[in-house]
Amino acid sequence: MNKWTRWLPLVAVLSLVVLISPVVGCAPSKPTAAPAPAPAPAPQPTPSAPPTAAPPVAQGTADLVVKDLWHQQGQLFYKVANLGTAASQGGKAVLHVDGVQKSDDYVEPIAAGQEVTAVFQRWSFPGYEEKDPPKASDIGAQRLTLTAKVCIDTENTTKESNETNNCLEKVMGQPFVYNFILYATTAEWMSGNDKIQWYLSPTNEKGAAFPSNYKLEDGQFYHGALAMYPPHKSNGTIQGTFGQPYSDNPYTPAAIQEIKIPELAKFTAKVGFREDAKTDGVTVSFGYVEPNRNLVWLKTMKVNYDGKLDNFEVDLSSLAGQKALFILKVEAGASWQDDWLTWVNPRISQ
Fold first, then answer.
1. What are the residue ranges of CATH 2.60.40.10 in the chain?
2. For the segment 56-99, what is each residue's pLDDT rounded down to a tens digit?
3. Which residues neighbour 58 within 8 Å (Cβ) at sequence distance 6 or greater?
4. What SS3 string covers 158-198?
5. At residue 137, does pLDDT exceed 50?
6. Which pLDDT score, from 0 to 100, does residue 11 have?
7. Which of 228, 232, 180, 225 has its CA nearest to residue 208?
8. pLDDT digits (tens, 9 = 90+) for 296-328
9. How far is CA 219 from its chain centroid?
10. CATH 2.60.120.260 residue ranges in the chain?
11. How far apart are alpha carbons 232 and 200 in whole angstroms?
């Protein structure tokens, strides 16, 4: 055996080791990495149900109204109420006297359902003093009066449920009064087309006008009522024309002249029949005669016997400043029997 033969087994072993060992300088192969697990999603908060909304609270609306105005020691006071369901804002009040703005004032906020009294500090009645009540002898004459008008929230600072009741107008002083009963003696009386005298007998066939103290159909007595009975014929009429009496001298009968109609004037009366009247009803009318003698009827109403008196009213504010004579008229129906019509407290007043 030569020297190479004995080394063969060792060479074979080394060769096998070389084949199995990695080559020097080469990085060993890395094992394939397992895929990284996907990150778990961040937990989200569970949405909670929205809170139940509270029912809306009713806000309400204010409603300002001037309830009254009056004078005291030359100053004008006024009362304001809030009739609404919410408080008002502070606002401006304005005073007009005979149509001319005279003063203003600040009205504090007013709670719902409350009222306040205020006064126009920067204006007073010049030389004004309250007089005694008018006497019967001077009823019908013009007096010391003025018309005051108070308006509140004039700049609309408060939203209101009713914007039409923010003003109040009132006659201050001694209002004008024209009493038809007191001036019936000087009125011009007509039965149809014929002139008749004042205070004819209730049974006069031409008709009659006189102060009545009879009990009326409502069972009451009325002092100084004015009776106007039409003539004894179908559809007969009786009427009186009223004005302001005057005379050029004390030796001539008094004549009548037009009445100057004041502001805020109205005609008021009640009408009905004498108790136990067997009437088929009458028609009553109220009107005026213009200076050009044109006749204007303002209201006509049928009156029946029903055990009560009827109200008869006419607004004369549209005639303010004009002059006129006034007429009361009663017209019978088909029958004139017991047409005992009576005017209770007929007057023009403010």
1. 64-175
2. 434 789 999 999 999 887 789 999 999 999 999 999 999 999 88
3. 85
4. CCECCCCCCEEEEEEECCCEEECCCCHHHCEEEECCEEECC
5. no
6. 40
7. 228
8. 999 999 999 999 999 999 999 999 999 999 999
9. 36
10. 179-349
11. 14
Residue type, position 249, single letter? N
Phi-psi region of 153 (alpha: psi -120 to 50; beta: other; left: phi over 0): left
The 3-state secondary structure of the chain reads CCCCHHHHHHHHHHHHHHHHCCCCCCCCCCCCCCCCCCCCCCCCCCCCCCCCCCCCCCCCCECEEEEEEEEECCEEEEEEEECCCCCCCCEEEEEEECCEEEEEEEECCCCCCCEEEEECCCCCCCCCCCCCCCCHHHCCCCCCEEEEEEEECCCCCCCECCCCCCEEEEEEECCCEEECCCCHHHCEEEECCEEECCCCCCCCCCCEEEEECCEECCCCECCCEEEEECCCCCCCEEEEEECEEECCCCCCCCEEECEECCCCCEEEEEEEEECCCCCCCEEEEEEEECCCCCEEEEEEEEECCCCCCEEEEEECHHHCCCEEEEEEEEEECCCCCCCCEEEEEEEEEC
Burial of residue 234, with CB atoms counted within 10 A of its CB: 0-12 exposed, 13-18 middle, 19 or more buried = exposed
Please name the residue that has the structure tokens 């409502």. 218
So what's the architecture of 64-175 in CATH?
Sandwich (2.60)
Q: How far is CA 21 from CA 26, 30, 267, in A?
A: 11, 16, 138
Asked whether the beta carbons of 260 and 321 are under 8 A apart, the reply is: yes
Give the chain's end-to-end CA distance (angstroms, integer).
166
Token code pair at residue 307 = 């055990």
What is the distance between the alpha carbons of residues 144 and 132, in angstroms, rounded to a whole number? Answer: 12
Give the CATH architecture of domain 179-349.
Answer: Sandwich (2.60)
Residue with tokens 């004037």: 265
Identity at 10, one-letter amino acid code? L
Amino acid (one-letter) located at 275: E
Q: Rounded distance, CA 332 to CA 44, Å? A: 98
